[in-house]
Amino acid sequence: MVNFFKRYISWIAPFVLAAFILFGLLLVSAPPPLPHEQIVEIAQGMSAPQIAQKLFDEHIIAHPFVLRLALRLSKGSGTVQAGAYRFDTPQNIVVVVYRLLRGAYGLPPTRITFIEGVTVREAAEQVATALPGVSAIDFMKEALPYEGYLFPDTYFFTPSATAASIVATMRANFTAKIDPFMDDIAVSKHSLSDIVIVASLVEKEARTNVNRRIVAGILWNRLALGMPLQVDAVFGYIFNRDTYSPSAADLRVDSPYNTYTHIGLPPTSIDNPGVDALDAAIHPTKTNYLYYLTGKDDQMHYATTYAGHQFNQRKYLP
């Protein structure tokens, strides 16, 4: 019996050795040259066979079964990182597996700049254009509950970015930016939510810091007196359009965001304000003004009475 096992091992050993050598060669050998640069999207949750088949179909690898086996053997080293991978030269299985496990995408981070006052709807279009792996619909679902709390800034997102990760990054930035103001917010006796909503209105209504602070003061004055805010900018949010010079019909639209027909603040922010607008809402200029308008001279004009506001309308509006 012992002799039988010895003969069996001596007979099969060359085949096992040859298999290992072949597998090793397949691991380190590169496929034929790529016909052109390839960007391959590895979706979250794809299985090893699916990944191997996709890379084979895109001519990135020559032997999908070797990649499947290599991924299984590499399980203890991590999981495949979803995202877009750039391949511009032939690479062997070892390199491909390393890149998949480390998220070495071969692509620079994508830069996206969100301007002050950007809405979630506008941000969704930017994200979907810059990161094809993130749809506008997915971003809207993640971001809409946080309108006002997604800080407008310049960001750099990796190809693995998801709607959830982008929203989390923007929210974290908002938290960092608002933190220095928290003591002043407490002193103001206004809630953070009210501050953010007022700041979102100010962002759309005034262009300079001086005017932002005066407009913020007017909005707080009107709220304190129980007057409707009558902010035109809300109609851009209601109707999803860039211009917001409301018509007579617009002024009667049945919406909780209609600040002509509803007393108090809108239910949420109408955009994502920047630091200057937030600062203005927290530190408004105290005046007796209750009215403002932007005239044809591109300047803001203020009044303490409705009669004074009507005078400004006749004098400064087209």
What does this 3D model show about the protein?
The longest helix is centred in the N-terminal third of the chain and has 27 residues, at 2-28. The chain has 3 domains: 2-102, 2-Layer Sandwich (Dna Ligase, domain 1), CATH 3.30.1490.480; 110-177, no CATH class; 185-316, no CATH class. 49% of the residues lie in helices and 8% in strands. It has helices spanning 2-28, 48-57, 64-73, 93-102, 120-130, 136-143, 163-178, 182-188, 192-205, 209-225, 234-239, 275-282, 306-316, and strands at 38-42, 83-87, 110-113, 154-157, 291-294, 300-303. Strands 1-2 form a two-stranded antiparallel sheet. It has a two-stranded antiparallel sheet with strand order 3-4. It has a two-stranded antiparallel ribbon with strand order 5-6. It is mostly helical and 318 residues long. The radius of gyration is 30 Å and the shape is elongated. A hairpin with a 5-residue loop joins strand 5 and strand 6. The chain starts with a helix and ends with a helix. The relative contact order is 0.09. The chain has 13 helices and 6 strands.
Measured by DSSP, the beta-strand proportion falls in 5-15%
What order do the SSEs take from the amino end to the carboxyl end, as H and E?
A: HEHHEHEHHEHHHHHHEEH
What distance lies between the first and last C-alpha atoms, to the nearest angstrom? 108 Å
* Neighbour order of strands in the largest sheet: 1-2
Shape: elongated
* C-alpha-based Rg, rounded: 30 Å
Mean pLDDT: 87
Helix and strand topology:
Layout: H1 2-28, E1 38-42, H2 48-57, H3 64-73, E2 83-87, H4 93-102, E3 110-113, H5 120-130, H6 136-143, E4 154-157, H7 163-178, H8 182-188, H9 192-205, H10 209-225, H11 234-239, H12 275-282, E5 291-294, E6 300-303, H13 306-316
Antiparallel strand pairs: 1-2, 3-4, 5-6
